[in-house]
Amino acid sequence: MIAKFSSTLRFADIFFKYAQVGSPAVKIQPGRPETNTAVDILKLWNPNYFMDVEEIVLGPESNYGHVESGPGKNPAVIHVNIDRVVNEAGGQQSGKAAALACAKVIAHEKGHVSSFDEKQGFVGGEGPAEQEERSFESWLQSGGMQKVENLPSYKALK
After folding, report:
1. What is the C-alpha R_g of the chain?
2. Between the CA of residue 5 and those of 1, 9, 11, 17, what are the distances in Å?
3. Which of 62, 72, 74, 82 is spaced 20 to 30 A from 106 at the CA atom?
4. Domain 24-156 has CATH 3.40.390
Protein backbone atom coordinates (compact mmCIF):
# COMPACT_ATOMS: atom_id res chain seq x y z
CA MET A 1 0.00 0.00 0.00
CA ILE A 2 2.79 2.44 0.88
CA ALA A 3 4.64 1.60 -2.36
CA LYS A 4 1.46 2.36 -4.33
CA PHE A 5 1.03 5.67 -2.48
CA SER A 6 4.68 6.54 -3.04
CA SER A 7 4.46 5.89 -6.80
CA THR A 8 1.23 7.94 -6.97
CA LEU A 9 3.02 10.87 -5.30
CA ARG A 10 5.93 10.53 -7.72
CA PHE A 11 3.50 10.55 -10.67
CA ALA A 12 1.68 13.61 -9.26
CA ASP A 13 4.99 15.46 -8.87
CA ILE A 14 6.01 14.69 -12.47
CA PHE A 15 2.56 15.69 -13.75
CA PHE A 16 2.71 19.00 -11.85
CA LYS A 17 6.14 19.86 -13.28
CA TYR A 18 5.10 19.09 -16.86
CA ALA A 19 1.76 20.86 -16.50
CA GLN A 20 3.65 24.08 -15.73
CA VAL A 21 5.93 23.85 -18.77
CA GLY A 22 3.32 25.11 -21.25
CA SER A 23 2.90 28.54 -19.72
CA PRO A 24 5.33 29.46 -16.98
CA ALA A 25 4.20 32.44 -14.96
CA VAL A 26 6.60 35.23 -14.24
CA LYS A 27 5.87 37.74 -11.50
CA ILE A 28 6.18 41.40 -12.55
CA GLN A 29 6.61 44.00 -9.80
CA PRO A 30 4.89 46.43 -10.38
CA GLY A 31 3.01 45.43 -13.53
CA ARG A 32 2.68 48.00 -16.30
CA PRO A 33 0.94 47.63 -19.68
CA GLU A 34 4.13 47.74 -21.76
CA THR A 35 5.90 45.27 -19.48
CA ASN A 36 2.99 42.84 -19.47
CA THR A 37 2.87 43.07 -23.27
CA ALA A 38 6.64 42.54 -23.46
CA VAL A 39 6.22 39.30 -21.49
CA ASP A 40 3.39 38.26 -23.85
CA ILE A 41 5.65 38.95 -26.84
CA LEU A 42 8.51 36.88 -25.43
CA LYS A 43 6.13 34.01 -24.59
CA LEU A 44 4.85 34.18 -28.17
CA TRP A 45 8.46 33.76 -29.34
CA ASN A 46 8.96 30.84 -26.94
CA PRO A 47 6.15 29.60 -24.67
CA ASN A 48 8.74 28.30 -22.18
CA TYR A 49 10.81 31.49 -22.24
CA PHE A 50 10.54 32.26 -18.54
CA MET A 51 11.27 28.78 -17.15
CA ASP A 52 14.39 29.99 -15.33
CA VAL A 53 13.13 33.50 -14.46
CA GLU A 54 11.29 34.00 -11.17
CA GLU A 55 10.53 37.68 -11.27
CA ILE A 56 10.90 40.93 -13.19
CA VAL A 57 11.35 43.94 -10.92
CA LEU A 58 10.75 47.41 -12.35
CA GLY A 59 12.58 50.28 -10.73
CA PRO A 60 15.24 52.96 -11.00
CA GLU A 61 18.86 52.10 -11.71
CA SER A 62 21.72 53.38 -13.86
CA ASN A 63 21.42 50.74 -16.62
CA TYR A 64 18.51 49.52 -18.74
CA GLY A 65 18.47 46.38 -16.66
CA HIS A 66 20.57 43.90 -14.71
CA VAL A 67 20.67 40.56 -12.95
CA GLU A 68 22.90 39.83 -9.98
CA SER A 69 24.26 37.02 -7.87
CA GLY A 70 26.02 36.68 -4.57
CA PRO A 71 24.93 36.66 -0.94
CA GLY A 72 21.31 37.75 -0.65
CA LYS A 73 20.93 38.09 -4.44
CA ASN A 74 18.80 35.95 -6.76
CA PRO A 75 20.21 35.42 -10.29
CA ALA A 76 16.71 34.43 -11.50
CA VAL A 77 15.37 37.98 -10.95
CA ILE A 78 15.56 40.48 -13.81
CA HIS A 79 15.69 44.16 -12.84
CA VAL A 80 14.52 46.65 -15.49
CA ASN A 81 14.73 50.44 -15.44
CA ILE A 82 11.39 50.74 -17.18
CA ASP A 83 11.25 54.54 -17.00
CA ARG A 84 14.51 54.78 -18.96
CA VAL A 85 13.36 52.17 -21.49
CA VAL A 86 10.01 53.93 -21.98
CA ASN A 87 11.61 57.37 -22.22
CA GLU A 88 14.05 56.24 -24.90
CA ALA A 89 11.23 54.50 -26.79
CA GLY A 90 9.42 57.80 -27.32
CA GLY A 91 8.10 58.45 -23.84
CA GLN A 92 4.75 56.72 -24.43
CA GLN A 93 4.24 54.66 -21.28
CA SER A 94 1.83 52.21 -22.82
CA GLY A 95 2.98 52.49 -26.41
CA LYS A 96 3.85 49.67 -28.76
CA ALA A 97 7.41 50.96 -29.16
CA ALA A 98 7.83 50.85 -25.37
CA ALA A 99 6.58 47.24 -25.22
CA LEU A 100 9.02 46.15 -27.94
CA ALA A 101 11.91 48.03 -26.28
CA CYS A 102 11.03 46.44 -22.94
CA ALA A 103 10.93 42.97 -24.53
CA LYS A 104 14.39 43.58 -25.98
CA VAL A 105 15.81 44.59 -22.58
CA ILE A 106 14.18 41.60 -20.87
CA ALA A 107 15.57 39.30 -23.59
CA HIS A 108 19.05 40.72 -23.00
CA GLU A 109 18.84 40.19 -19.25
CA LYS A 110 17.31 36.73 -19.75
CA GLY A 111 20.50 35.85 -21.65
CA HIS A 112 22.42 36.60 -18.45
CA VAL A 113 19.99 34.54 -16.34
CA SER A 114 20.43 31.56 -18.67
CA SER A 115 24.22 31.86 -18.51
CA PHE A 116 24.36 31.66 -14.71
CA ASP A 117 26.31 28.77 -13.22
CA GLU A 118 26.20 28.17 -9.46
CA LYS A 119 30.00 27.74 -9.26
CA GLN A 120 31.20 30.18 -11.93
CA GLY A 121 28.60 32.96 -11.78
CA PHE A 122 27.53 34.54 -15.05
CA VAL A 123 29.49 32.76 -17.77
CA GLY A 124 30.45 34.50 -21.01
CA GLY A 125 30.15 38.14 -19.96
CA GLU A 126 27.87 40.07 -22.31
CA GLY A 127 28.08 37.40 -25.04
CA PRO A 128 25.05 35.30 -24.04
CA ALA A 129 22.94 38.40 -23.39
CA GLU A 130 23.81 40.00 -26.71
CA GLN A 131 23.14 36.71 -28.52
CA GLU A 132 19.72 36.41 -26.89
CA GLU A 133 18.90 39.98 -27.90
CA ARG A 134 20.01 39.32 -31.50
CA SER A 135 17.98 36.10 -31.65
CA PHE A 136 14.88 37.97 -30.50
CA GLU A 137 15.40 40.76 -33.04
CA SER A 138 16.00 38.19 -35.79
CA TRP A 139 12.72 36.45 -34.90
CA LEU A 140 10.88 39.78 -35.09
CA GLN A 141 12.38 40.55 -38.52
CA SER A 142 11.69 37.08 -39.92
CA GLY A 143 7.93 37.08 -39.39
CA GLY A 144 7.60 37.32 -35.63
CA MET A 145 6.45 40.93 -35.82
CA GLN A 146 3.40 39.86 -37.81
CA LYS A 147 2.47 37.51 -34.96
CA VAL A 148 3.12 40.24 -32.38
CA GLU A 149 0.72 42.58 -34.18
CA ASN A 150 -2.07 40.03 -33.59
CA LEU A 151 -1.50 39.79 -29.82
CA PRO A 152 -4.51 41.22 -27.96
CA SER A 153 -2.29 42.99 -25.41
CA TYR A 154 -0.20 44.55 -28.22
CA LYS A 155 -3.31 45.65 -30.13
CA ALA A 156 -4.61 47.34 -26.96
CA LEU A 157 -1.55 49.62 -26.77
CA LYS A 158 -1.59 52.93 -28.60
Report:
1. 18
2. 6, 6, 10, 19
3. 72
4. yes
